[in-house]
Amino acid sequence: MRTQVGIVGAGPAGLMLAHLLHLRGIDSVVVDLRTREDIEHTIKAGVLEQSTVDLMTETGVGDRLRREGSVHHGINLAFGGALHRIDFAALTNGRAVTVYPQHEVLTDLIARRLADGGDLRFGVSGTRVEGISGDRPSIRFTHEGSEQRVECDFVVGADGSHSTTRALIPGRADLFREYPFAWFGILAEAPPSSGELIYAHSDRGFALISTRSPTVQRLYFQCDPHTDPGDWPDDRIWEELSARVAGAGAVVKTGPVFQKSVLRFRSFVCEPMQHGRLFLAGDAAHTVPPTGQKGLNLAVADVYLLDRALAAYYERRDTSLLDGYTATALRRVWRAQHFSWWMTSMLHRFDGTNDFDVRRQLAELDLVTGSASAATTLAENYVGLPLTP
Ligand SMILES: Cc1cc2nc3c(=O)[nH]c(=O)nc-3n(C[C@H](O)[C@H](O)[C@H](O)COP(=O)(O)OP(=O)(O)OC[C@H]3O[C@@H](n4cnc5c(N)ncnc54)[C@H](O)[C@@H]3O)c2cc1C
Predict the structure, then answer these.
(1) Which of 102, 109, 162, 286 has the most ligand 1 atoms within 8 A of CB, as the residue to mutate?
(2) 218 in Cβ contact with 180 (< 8 Å)
(3) Same domain, 164 and 53
(4) How far is Cα 387 from Cα 31, in angstroms, rounded to an integer?
(5) 90 within a domain of the structure (yes/no)
(6) Catalytic amino acids?
(7) Can you give the residue range of the structural domain that contains 248?
(8) Do both 275 and 159 map to the same domain?
(9) Which of 81, 193, 293, 359 is most buried, most CB within 10 Å of its CB?
(10) pLDDT tens-digit profile of 2-25?
(11) Which pTM was predicted?
(12) Residues 319-353: tens digit of each pLDDT
């Protein structure tokens, strides 16, 4: 079997790339270990930057997002006994984020790829990428009991944070930072506690009051990485969340908790993001702590670049954008790493945090909410920088 671009991974990076390439008349085959059912029902990210929303809308996969997504024009920082609003609309010339769950983005992309006759292989096993240093790389895998080999012009490794394609990049640097805490995350059947997300600084540690839909809420609180979710019955979780936001006057609305997990806090960047005919995109190349809500959006930003670079190759045999992919992508990746680290360091309690550190954090939060230029920096980074022209 032959295709132009073989894509490993049907997450936001792989599916969005296949969709963008199709609009240019470039063929792809996407393979994924997981079933379609699993991909369409795993709840992960939910905050889409303005440029992600714009790209989905402009390329014809944004109808349901526009109808069902919830546009947020600001967030609240809870500290010093009050909520302090960061007004995105005023600070960024009308830009906003949209809360629309990642699995719904994937559902929309899969439906569109299939309607467009796209080749998506779910539930594959034994994926192996070969020949990336030559002109004819290929992907081998087993699908529905038969061994398959797809010969490609290029392979894109969009296979997530446990990427195996990444290992094919010789001499790469894996730049890594593990944080000394984690987030206890829950999904609950409850009404939203707030019209906009609340990022809370408290003596007990950080909390985030987020949402996924009018009936499903996503809430987090900072915890020890070794926390066992089994030790946390629902009542204890709600008490902890309430205690972290009550000082600022916020009230948490409760309901049955149907998922509990402990998310390790890691930052990771693989440099370079390419070798020969292999290009990495999304979590395969970088992960960020969730504080900045950047993971899904960075995946989309990477494939926006790859789509344009591959188009330049097929239309003019111009390889300059492919050659420069790592350098261009990493500028945004490192900006997002810095933003995620900044939000994290401003809001969390670290080992050994003392009164001095708390006063310093409060002074920073005061600056961010009191100075127009500091608030603008936060708002611009949160709603997301425009995609590289
Ligand atoms: C709980 C949680 C909450 C999050 N919240 C946010 C948020 O609010 N905002 C945000 O922007 N980001 C958030 N993120 C991060 C975001 O979900 C990821 O950054 C995003 O999924 C990355 O997309 P991706 O396509 O690069 O990788 P993935 O979504 O991980 O997709 C990779 C795909 O590759 C497949 N795969 C892996 N190995 C192979 C193989 N060998 N062969 C074939 N297929 C393979 C996997 O099955 C998977 O489907 C969150 C993540 C989690 C876990």
Answers:
(1) 102
(2) no
(3) yes
(4) 27
(5) no
(6) 72, 199, 290, 294, 382
(7) 178-265+350-383
(8) yes
(9) 293
(10) 999 999 999 999 999 999 999 999
(11) 0.96
(12) 999 999 999 999 999 999 999 999 999 999 998 88
